[in-house]
Amino acid sequence: MGGLTAAIVAQQYPQVQRLVLLAPAFGFMKLWLSYLGDEQVKQWQESGYLSVYHYGEGRSLPLHYQFALDAARYDEAQLQRAVPTLILHGRNDEVIPIQVSRDYASSRSHVKLVELNSDHSLMDVMPQIWQAIREFCQID
Hints:
This protein is α/β, with parallel strands linked by helices. The strands form two sheets. The protein has a three-stranded parallel sheet, sandwiched between helices. Strands 2-3 form a two-stranded antiparallel sheet. Strand 4, helix 4 and strand 5 form a beta-alpha-beta unit. The chain is globular, with a radius of gyration of 16 Å.
């Protein structure tokens, strides 16, 4: 959800001139809740926690149900400011389907999508990521 959060913050702060988003979680909660299914969502709500794999930690961690309530408040539809945005997304992303980024970029001329031959972690395409960022930000 970091990409969506960054995009929402950029709406409020005009000093943000560009965004670089890695596999942004546009439509995340709707998508994720559909993956979980009604029964698992109900169990999560009742128990308070759901065990979720954390890519940064490389292991599963408990996620409190409050996360779902908070995340439901954020929607990419509220993103109205045309902040130049670069999205880098793996074609084989198993967490956030690349179609989410394709849909977002297709309706916004200020968004450039770079599709990478990678998964959600993007760890195997770091040189391509840095090159795309240099070009987008016009860094030598």
